[in-house]
Structure formats: C-alpha cells, structure tokens
Amino acid sequence: MANRVVFIGPCYPFKGGVSKYAARLAVRLAATIPLEMHTYARLYPRWLFPGRSEPDPILEYNDVPFAIRDLSFLRPWTFYRLGCRIRRDAGSIDGVVLTWWTSVWGLHSWLLMMGLRKSVPLVLWCHNVFDHGRRGLLTIPVKQLLQGADSFVTHSGTERKRLESLAGGRPVGMSPLPPLHLGELKPLGEPGVMAPSRDRLREAPFRLLFFGFVRPYKGVEDLLEAMRQVSDKVHVHLTICGECWGKMHQKLQACLREYNIEDIVDIRDAYIPDDQLGAVFEACDAVVLPYREATGSGVVALAHFFSRPAIVTDVGSLSEAVVPGRNGWVCRAGNPDHLSLTILQAINQPISAASVAAAQPDAVDAWDKLTACVLQVMVSKTDKANAVRQEIKRGKHHQRH
C-alpha cells in the first residue's frame, strides 16, 4: 500500500476493552503503513451509558498522540463531514477501517458512508455484529452498515459464520483477540509456579475472580447461584471486580442476601486501571467468565497473560481460547448447576501456572496476525471500482425491467 489508511475508533482516555484494543491496533497499523486515526472527542451521553463515564486515569503509556479527536455522538454531522473529506482525498487513501461494536453508532456510521459515497474500500472491524441483549429496530442500522461495507474482520468463528451469511461473498477475515498488553505490564512470578495445592486449600479458600464491566448478559447471577451450591462443599471465595452498569450492584447485593453468601463474595464496584491489574490477578487462583452470551472477551487473554486459568462458558469465542485441562475449563452457558460442577473440578484438579503459560500464544505474533488480517481483507481500489460499476449496472437493469 503506497497511500495511507484511515482508522476510526475509540481510544484513550475512554475506558474499556474496545478502546484499548483500538488504540493498540492503531499503533500496530501505524508501524506498518501510513495511518490517519480519527477518534471521539466525546462518546455516549449519560442517558445512553449506564456506567460511570470518567476517563481511564492511567494514560502514561496508552495515549495515541496522532489520533484526531474530531467525532462526537452529539454531533453526528462530524461523521458525514469526515466521510466527505475522505472522498475528496480518495486519491491518496487506500481504505477506511471502522471499529464496530454497538448499534448505538448506527446512524453515525451510516452518515459516514453517505459522505464516502463508495469512494474508498470500507473495512468493518467487528467486535460484536449485533448488540448483546438488543434486538428489533436496533438491528436495522447494523444491516445497512453491513450492506455498505466491502469487507470484514472479526475475532470468533461464530461471528465469522454470521458475517459470511450476511456478506454475500465479500471477504470476511477472522483473527483471535491477542493479549492486550505488550510489555506495559509484567506477568506475575515465574511460569513454573504451581497452582494452589490441596494442603494450601485446607487453610485458605480457592479464590475466584470475575473481572470487567458487570452487565446483565455476563451471567454474574448464575455465578452467585453456583457459589451458593459449592459453598457448603469446599472452601471458596469470589471477588467481583469491575464497574457495575445500571442497577446491577443492587441486583447482586440482593442475590448475596437471598443465597446467604455475603461472607464469601466481595464486590469491588469500580473500574480497575492498568496499574492495579497485577495485584487483582495475583490475588486469584482462577478467573471466571459465566457469560450467557458473548462474541469474545479480552479477559480470557488477560487471565492467561497472568498465568491464571479461566473458567468460561460455551458461547462466542470464549471456549476457542481455552484448552480444557491446560489453561482452563468450559461449562454450559446459563446453567448454574454445570458451572458449580466446573468450579469443583477447578478446585479438585488444579491447573499449574506453567501449563497456562505453555498454552499462551505469542503476543507479538498474535498482534502481527491481526494487523495482517485487517490489511489482507481490504479490497483494492480497482476491485472496489469494479464492484461499484456492477452495482450501477444492476440498478439500471432493474429500472428497465
């Protein structure tokens, strides 16, 4: 590619995995090709965002200094304006990569496409094709966006199949989510450190960690029901560590009282900045992702980065990242009974940190593969022009008949 690529997505100081992955991918792409990144001066208004909107406090190594902060949810015309500007400069731009993770941005993305007017190839980098727990009218802008894109990249086999069924032969690339941190954080201890022994478990509880934003689709209530079932069989403790969205904190507290497990579950209702991750993961023996639905999650890669095994459900790409018995365990989604049996298996058949480390993919190689995947699916300008001409011909044919 001789010309530059335009990358659009959230980045620091906004919180969450999508922002962190977008920032890291932008840096990787910029090291490979000339890159122009556009990001948000402001994300969601408070009435659309059930979490707390303060920025991530740890920015020392995370900021993307070349990002242009010219897009805003409350000013949707900024997307149309950007699309028009890209169209005017189309001779020096090989393509646009648009980060897609929620239909809340459907109108804005449509305006971007209206400004582009098919002048350059458009790649959709899809974290979620459709929103968690949202259906009906909110799928309309998603389908419009899918019709306008030239190619796609996603992170799970499930989402790849979904996109292929909607893409009509357009390229769909798939690359698993890489470990998020490349040298900014240090793995804990040595890979040879063993998982907790049965002797140690007689004295201290087996420590489980749920990490990340606490949202309804993540199945934390199922985890609490499973904790109720195992608490009278083994010595176990759970820490829920992450910002609760909406009324989730109140719901969890009600579950703790109903199940009488308040003494074995701690809720740390707060966003955890990167400089505290080491202490959080060091304090657990296994990480639990009891999701009822999912496309993927960076939490699995983060757990493995810290040589901690993960208990995951069989949804999305979660189970694709786990080799049972080597770096974690897989259970059925939405099934507290099966989750409780899996927790007991994790306690009775512990996995060593060495085993988790051995199964961990090379971080640099994983990021190289994702970067290459994005560039490989980008349709050439010649193919794009031919596709537009064919579309125009089909339109004229339908008009005559």
Question: Would you mind describing this structure in some detail?
Answer:
By secondary structure, the chain is α/β, with parallel strands linked by helices. The protein has two domains: 4-178 and 365-400, 3-Layer(aba) Sandwich (Rossmann fold); 198-359, Rossmann fold (3-Layer(aba) Sandwich), CATH 3.40.50. Helices cover 39% and strands 16% of the residues. The chain contains 14 helices and 13 strands. The chain has helices spanning 17-30, 77-88, 106-116, 139-148, 157-167, 198-203, 220-230, 248-259, 277-282, 298-305, 336-348, 353-359, 363-377, 381-400, and strands spanning 4-8, 35-42, 68-72, 93-100, 122-126, 151-154, 172-174, 206-211, 236-241, 265-268, 286-289, 310-313, 328-331. A seven-stranded parallel beta sheet has the order 3-2-1-4-5-6-7, sandwiched between helices. A six-stranded parallel beta sheet has the order 10-9-8-11-12-13, with helices on both faces. The longest helix has 20 residues, at 381-400. 43% of the residues are buried. The model is unreliable at 57-61 and 188-202 (pLDDT under 50).
